[in-house]
Amino acid sequence: MKKAYFISDLHLGANYITDHREHEARVIRFLDSIADDAAELYLLGDILDYWYEYRTVVPRGHVRFFGALARLADSGVKITWIVGNHDVWLFDYLRDEIGITVYNGTTEVDIMGHQFLISHGDDVGYQKPMYRFTRWCFHNRVCQWLYAGIHPRWTHAIAKGWSSSNRTRRRPELPVEVKRSPAIDHLCDYVRQHEQHSHIEHYVFGHLHVALQEQVEGTDTTMTILGEWIKRDTYAVFDGKTLELLKFQ
User: Fold this and answer.
1) Label partner for 160 (CA 20 to 30 A): which of 10, 49, 174, 193?
2) Is 246 in contact with 235 (CB distance < 8 Å)?
3) Which residues of the chain have pLDDT under 50?
C-alpha cells in the first residue's frame, strides 16, 4: 500500500546541532526507510536551517540529503517542499535538478482522494507585528535582490548567527506531551475559521516544534503539528484512511 509522508523542521546545518553528519545521516535513514511504500513526500519547511539560492552558485553542504531526495524522486516519489522561515529563499535549483515541487505559503492538496491543507505554519494564526514585517522583507523580491548583492561570506555568517541567537533566547522547548500553548490555540482558531468555508479534512503544520495531533473542537477535521528533528524525530504518514503522527526509531 502506497503512503504519503510529512516531515518538517529538520534544521539541517544549524550551528546548535553538535554532530551535523550524524544528524543528516539520521534523516537519510528515514528517507531510505520509506522508499518502498512512499507515493508522496511533503517537506513542510525549515528543512534547512539556512539556504540562499543564488542564480549560478549552489551553497555548500547537504549533498547526501539532496542525493537521498533525488533517489526518491527518480523512483517515482512525488516530493513537495513548502518553504519555511529558514529555507524561504528556495527558488528553482532543487525544482529543476531533482524534480521537487516548491510552494511558498499555505497550500491545499488532494492526497489519495482526501483534502489536506498544508503549511509550514509561520503564515497562519497570530504573528507579532515585528515578525510579520521581517517575514515580508524575506519574501520581498527587492529585498531578496539587495541581499543577494552582499558577499556570501557575510550573509551566511549573519543568518547562521541569527538562527543560533534566536534558538538560545527562546523559552525552554515544550515537552512532547504538551497539548496547549497560545501558538497552538491560534492555529486552532485558524482551523475553525477556515472550516466554515472549506472541505478540508486534515490540517498539517510545522514550525512550532511540538508533536501534536487532535481533532479541533467544533470541527470535523484533524490538526497535526509535525514536531521537529533536533530532538524528537517525528513525522506523519497517511495510508489513504488514517493520518498517524509517529516517531522515527
Assistant:
1) 174
2) yes
3) 171-172, 174-177
